[in-house]
Each structure stands twice: as C-alpha cells, then as structure tokens.
Amino acid sequence: MSTISAVDLSGLALYMRPSCPYCIRVTDYCREHGVDLELRNIAEGQHLEALMVGGGKRQVPCLRIERQGQVRWLYESLDIIAYLQALHAN
Ligand SMILES: N[C@@H](CCC(=O)N[C@@H](CS)C(=O)NCC(=O)O)C(=O)O
After folding, report:
1. pLDDT given for residue 40 in this prediction
2. Is the peptide bond before 61 cis (omega within 30 degrees of 0)?
3. How far does CA 18 lie from the centroid of its chain?
4. What pLDDT was estimated at residue 5?
5. What's domain 12-89's superfamily in CATH?
6. Partners of 39 in the beta sheet?
C-alpha cells in the first residue's frame, strides 16, 4: 500500500455525507492510501451552505481545493480520486 501523507494536503477539504456511496468510494481510497483529508459533513448546516454557495450545487462528494488564494470545487468521486492520485504522482 502506498501513502501520500508526504504530499501537502493543506487547503483541501472533502464535502461529504457518511452514508453516501460515492463519498465512501473517496474516503475508502483515502483510507487505503493514507490520505488524511479534512472531512466536512454537509449534515452540518454551515458546510452545506458553503458547498451550495461555493460549489454551486448540492452534490457530494465535492473536494474544495484552495491553492495560492484560488478556490476550486471539484465534483465527481472519480475525478476527486484522479486528482488525489495525481498529487501522489507529482
Ligand atoms: N456521479 C457522482 C454522483 C454523486 C451523487 O449522486 N451524490 C448524491 C449522494 S449519494 C448527492 O449528492 N445527492 C444529494 C444530497 O445528498 O443532498 C459521483 O460519482 O460523485
């Protein structure tokens, strides 16, 4: 099992619901690869609101990516996993 714990994960937060299968797909990947992402459960009102305002739609999982003052909201579980894999590769 590989780990990307050496990769800078600051500025990343995963908006999710624990019972959502697509979220579980991402959190399983994280667990298997030692990716210690900050999780934000949209059952908490402030996280749902941030997702709706920032991302533009109520869909989880969504990865909030803040890099050098720029914020991007990445939807789709497979795209999120690909993004995390690319971090590992670089
Ligand atoms: N194709 C998307 C599907 C995501 C999806 O359908 N998410 C559902 C939860 S399982 C959702 O956000 N529903 C609205 C909600 O939970 O409020 C993915 O792979 O991430």
Report:
1. 98
2. yes
3. 13
4. 46
5. Glutaredoxin (3.40.30.10)
6. 14
Atom 10, ligand 1: residue with shortest CA distance? 20
DSSP codes of every residue in 3-55: --TTS--TTEEEEE-TT-HHHHHHHHHHHHHT---EEEETTSHHHHHHIIIII
Q: What is the DSSP letter of 72?
A: E
Question: Given the CA of residue 78, which atom of ligand 1 is nearest to it?
Answer: 19
Pocket test for ligand 1, best of 16, 22, 73 (most atoms within 8 A of CB): 22
Cα–ligand 1 centroid distance for 43 (angstroms): 14
Mean pLDDT by groups of 10 residues along the chain of 90 residues: 65 98 98 95 98 98 96 98 89
Q: Exposure pattern of 18-47 as b/e (b: 16+ CB <10 Å)?
A: eebebbbebbebbeebebebebbebeeeeb
